Amino acid sequence: MASYRKFSTIFLFILLNDRNITHEGNSSTSDNVIQLTTNSIGGELQSSVGRATYMDDVLLWDSTTGRVTDFETHFSFIMLAVDNLSYGDGITFFLAPKWSKLPPDSHGGYLGLLSKDKATDNSTQNQIVSVEFDSWRNDWDPSPDNVGINVNSVVSVANVTWKSSIKDGRKGNAWVSYNSTTKNLSVFLTYADNPVFRGNSSLFHIVDLSKFLPEWIRFSKLRHRNLVQLVGWSHERDELLLVYEFMPNGSLDNHLFRGEADLTWEVRYKIALGLASALLYLHEDWEQCVVHRDIKSSNVMLDSNFNAKLGDFGLARLVDHKLGSQTTVLAGTFGYLAPDHKSLMKPYEADVGFSLVEWVWGLYGGGKIVEAADERLRMDFNELEMEQLMVVGLWCAHLDSKSRPSETQVLNVLKFESPLPKLPLELPIPVYLPALPFAPDLPSFAGFTDTLTPR
Fold first, then answer.
1. What domain range includes position 173?
2. Which of 208, 276, 218, 318 is nearest to 415 (CA)?
3. Relative to the CA of 95, which of 170, 336, 383, 386 has its CA 20 to 30 Å away?
4. Are residues 262 and 375 in the same domain?
5. Domain containing residue 437: CATH number
6. pTM of the complete model
7. 324 backbone φψ class: left, alpha, beta (φ>0; ψ -120 to 50)
8. Catalytic residues
């Protein structure tokens, strides 16, 4: 990729095979090289930007080992500043998702990587790792001639100043390599004649490339007895097919609503414990918090022993435990979405579904919550367990997300290791307070009239 700020600079890659190269912007092939800016001097060269992308998929994930693969690449380039007073910003080698395209308004110091409005925000949604060979000093650059490693931004996380000019027309040879064990991304640049790469580097930085894999691949690393296991996939002809382990007893909804054999209370309570255990793993125990966003009976699968296994991670999102989620798109099945999710459009760990009806809360307030039990059980159940499960269900459906339990609390109550909470006797009614006076840009604040105390 290359970008031109003023005029009078031509960027060249040595070209070996153009059949698998996609050209965007001003990128083209000429005289057996990839030329990334317009091949002219003058006004047409101003703000010129081009991107050349390898069309075929690059293997970064080894399904056999379940880890990111090592890689190494070598390329040669020439940056020639015809006018020493005006020249371009540089070129980059980049890794990005297959669907990545040349963004609008990405010329100049944005190097064809990111549009101007996203170039410096360091958002994980940018999904791009690059090595830049910079020839123009922007506000975020340490020097006019430098080599940098960029992660989701044009602001380098590591860089080194190049003591000689990068844009003097000499041929540079660059090696970019990645060690998946140490997560070390290293760069070696030399202008020597007949160069040989022996593993040394001019620059390096620790980058976890597993965070740049598609989320469905990262979900394949999940390992828990109460999760449906992904056993393989096929990604050919732009069609993704996922293969999961076979569940002999199908989904929970078939047994609850579609005429399959009735489930005894012992089996139902075991299913509830298994689902709570799966969510504890997803929310708190795995390396990142996984917010499923579509928990319902049709996504709870049952193995040959009627053990619950949560499946269908098509709407799930990864959330950093410390940073929180940046997801702003509403997703899920209506009737199973938390009410705050629909209004704020932000998933929470407490967003475990909202399908309980108000009359159940009324039964709780009247001390008759076990009357909400499924009639098909014919009162053949453990009343203490039924009460535990019903109250935990109401607790999880509390309108105030801050008043809902963590998965640790849920599991402890279901195992009778912690007491039941004391919930409001009536379904809490949300109270919306207006914005403060003389602050029209501040949002309204939501509050609730009841509090939660231990029982």
1. 2-212
2. 276
3. 170
4. yes
5. 1.10.510.10
6. 0.60
7. left
8. 294
